[in-house]
Design a protein that fits this description.
The protein is an alpha/beta fold. The protein is built from eleven helices and eleven strands. The strands form three sheets. The chain has a seven-stranded parallel beta sheet with strand order 3-2-1-4-5-6-9, sandwiched between helices. Helix 1 packs across helix 6, helix 3 runs parallel beside helix 4 and helix 7 runs parallel beside helix 11.
C-alpha cells in the first residue's frame, strides 16, 4: 500500500490529482486541507481529508507521518517559499520517499520572474534534501478562463497580453500526469514541462468560447498599468499584483508559446485541446 499526501487538496490542480488517484488499487490518499471539517466531501473511497495548515507547523508533521509520497502544492502567498520548505523538511523527517512538486514552466531560467524564483527556490530545497523528486512545470491553465478571466457580462475578456500566444494546458491533464509519476517508477529526479497541444492567443480563446457558448465574446487588450490597477481594485495584495504583471508581460512577449511533448510521453495520448475543454465547459460561460 502506498500512502500519498496531496497538499492544497481543494484547489484546481490538487482536485484533479485526487480525482486521478481515486479508486487506484494499492493507493491511499490523504487530502491535505486547512480544516478537514469543511472538506467532508473529500472523504470517499481511498481518499480521506487530513489537517495541513502551513501557519500551524505542527500539522505538517502529523500530515506526513507514515506517508510514502507527497504532492507538493503551496498557496499563492508571499510566504510560499517558507511554506514549501517547511513541508519538505517535515517530509524528510518522516522518511517520505518522493516529492512531486507543482512548479511553473520556465522556473529553471534564472533569475527569471518572481513566480519562477519562488518555485525554483523550493525545487532547490527539495534537491538538497536528498528525497527523490519530480518537478511538474505547467504553463497557464485552461481553467483561468473560468476562474480568473472569464468573459464578463459585456462579453469581453480583458487582459494585457497583446497578440502573445500561450500553450495553455488542462488541469485534468496535469492531474493525470501527477498521478502517473506518483504511482509508476522511472520518474525520479526528473522535471517535466506540461503544455497543451498548441499555443493560442487570447483572441483565439475568446472566439472558441463564443462558439461553444453562443455568445459574442471578444478579447480586449488593456494597458499594463490599467491591468495592475484592476487587480489591486479586486483586493489582490501588492506582491500578487506585481507577480502577475510580470507573468502577463512574459505571455505578451510570446515566451509562453513553446509546446512540450511531455504530457503525451507520460500519458500515451495527446493533451487536451482548448476547443475540447471549451466544449465541456460551455455552460459555465452562458450569459
Amino acid at each position: 500500500m502506498t500512502t500519498i499526501l496531496v497538499s492544497g487538496a481543494k484547489g484546481t490542480i490538487a482536485t484533479q490529482v485526487i480525482h486521478a488517484l481515486e479508486g487506484q488499487a494499492g493507493v491511499t490518499v490523504r487530502a491535505g486541507v486547512r480544516n478537514p471539517a469543511n472538506a467532508k466531501e473529500l472523504a470517499r473511497g481511498n481518499v480521506s481529508p487530513v489537517e495541513l495548515d502551513y501557519e500551524r507547523p505542527e500539522t505538517l508533521a502529523a500530515a506526513v507521518k507514515g506517508v510514502d509520497k507527497v504532492f507538493l502544492l503551496t498557496p499563492f502567498d508571499a510566504r510560499q517559499v517558507e511554506f514549501g520548505k517547511a513541508l519538505v523538511d517535515a517530509a524528510k523527517a518522516a522518511g517520505v520517499k518522493q516529492i512531486v512538486k507543482l512548479s511553473a514552466m520556465g522556473c529553471e531560467h534564472e533569475p527569471g520572474i518572481q513566480l519562477g524564483r519562488w518555485h525554483r527556490a523550493v525545487e532547490k530545497h527539495i534537491e538538497a534534501s536528498g528525497i527523490a523528486y519530480t518537478f511538474l512545470r505547467p504553463n497557464n491553465f485552461f481553467e483561468n478562463f473560468v476562474n480568473y478571466y472569464p468573459p464578463g457580462k459585456d462579453g469581453n475578456i480583458y487582459l494585457p497580453w497583446g497578440d502573445g500566444a500561450c500553450s495553455f494546458v488542462a488541469a485534468a491533464d496535469i492531474g493525470a500526469v501527477a498521478a502517473a509519476v506518483l504511482t509508476k517508477p522511472g520518474h525520479e529526479n526528473k522535471a517535466y514541462v506540461l503544455t497543451g497541444p498548441e499555443a493560442i492567443t487570447i483572441g483565439q480563446a475568446a472566439r472558441a468560447i463564443g462558439e461553444v457558448s453562443g455568445r459574442d465574446v471578444r478579447y480586449v487588450d488593456v494597458p499594463e498599468e490599467a491591468a495592475k490597477q484592476a487587480m489591486a481594485g479586486m483586493g489582490m495584495p501588492a506582491f500578487a499584483v506585481d507577480a502577475m504583471a510580470e507573468l502577463h508581460a512574459i505571455d505578451k512577449a510570446g515566451y509562453a508559446a513553446a509546446v512540450s511533448g511531455d504530457v503525451k510521453a507520460i500519458l500515451g495520448r495527446e493533451p487536451t485541446s482548448f476547443l475540447e475543454f471549451a466544449k465541456k465547459n460551455a455552460a459555465r460561460w452562458k450569459a
